[in-house]
Amino acid sequence: SALSLVVLDEVDSTNAEVLRQVADGVSGVPVAIADCQTAGRGRRGRVWSSPRGQNLYLSIGLTFHGGFSVLDGLSLVLGVAVANALETLGASDIGLKWPNDIFLPSGKLGGILIELQGELQEGVVQVIAGIGINVHMAEAEEVDQPWSSLGNASPGIDWSRNAIAGNIITAVLDAAHQFSENGFPDFHAPWQRRDIFAGMPLEARNGELHGTGEGIDEAGNYLLRTEQGVVPVRAGEISLRVV
Ligand code: BTN
User: Fold this and answer.
1) Which of this chain's residues are annotated to bind biotin (predicted)?
2) Does the annotation count 97 as an active-site position?
3) What ipTM was assigned to the predicted interfaces of this complex?
4) CATH says 3-193 is which class?
5) Candidates 2.40.150.20, 2.40.30.90, 2.30.30.100, 3.40.50.300; correct CATH number of 201-242?
6) The whole model's pTM is what?
7) Where in the chain is the domain with CATH 3.30.930.10?
8) DSSP string of the chain?
9) Ligand 1 atom at minimum distance from 12 CA
10) Which is deepest, 9, 148, 187, 229, by most CB within 10 Å?
């Protein structure tokens, strides 16, 4: 269906903006883009650094049918879609850090924050997919982890935020449709190819679990090869980190 696209000079959070649009009963697929955010949010309650004019802050409202369980794997699906969209524009070596950080070899390039609006009617689930991509972020920007940007990694490309937004919106809507129709299996191999944890020494569950990154299973859980065998780690359960 048609997009209901708003482009804002400034907003608290584009995710919050799309949530408001959905609450107001907007027709079409709600999409919000902003030049800067005053209360950009990241996963796990973190702040998402959102300086003016330098990056992409984009949120898309997606509707799924079949209850919350159909969302398993969605964050991985969106990571694949965003990575493919950026490579279509000339980026290379886009990796994914489970469950859905967008990485370059030099650091974190972007992130995806999925928020649930809830069940509108029986079985109809509304999701807000918020995507932040560092495009031309100034070196001085203070972020709590090593970061990179498209401009840093591929300075030869004239990165246009409009082109990036257009490609990502199309890729996300196509991927969401394919995921609704066929489920997660189509995205398993594309995600594995980009796994930055593969073969790395990892820990989970606050250090109670140690192992080597083995990729994902058919449901999108991350697999750790431990001394006790292969153990799946569920998305949202606990963050994985390299040790
Ligand atoms: C993460 O923690 O890695 C997820 C970051 C998601 C940031 C994007 S920017 C657009 C949208 N609006 C927000 O407030 N957050 C997301």
Assistant:
1) 13-15, 37, 41-43, 108
2) no
3) 0.99
4) alpha beta
5) 2.30.30.100
6) 0.94
7) 3-193
8) --EEEEEES-BS-HHHHHHHHHHTT--SEEEEEES-BSS-B-GGG-B----TTTSEEEEEEEEEES-GGGGTTHHHHHHHHHHHHHHHTT----EEETTTEEEETTEEEEEEEEEEEEESSTTEEEEEEEEEE-SS--TT---SS-B--HHHH-TTS---HHHHHHHHHHHHHHHHHHHHHH-SHHHHHHHHHTBTTTT-EEEEGGGTEEEEEEEE-TTSPEEEEETTEEEEE-TTT---EE-
9) 14
10) 187
pLDDT in tens, the chain (243 residues): 799 999 999 999 999 999 999 999 999 999 999 999 999 999 988 999 999 999 999 999 999 998 877 787 999 999 999 999 999 999 999 999 998 899 999 999 999 999 988 776 788 899 999 999 999 987 766 777 789 999 999 999 999 999 999 999 999 999 999 999 999 999 999 999 999 999 999 988 888 889 999 999 998 999 999 999 999 988 655 556 676
Q: How far is the CA of 133 from the centre of ligand 1 (A)?
A: 9
* Residue 43 among the catalytic residues: yes
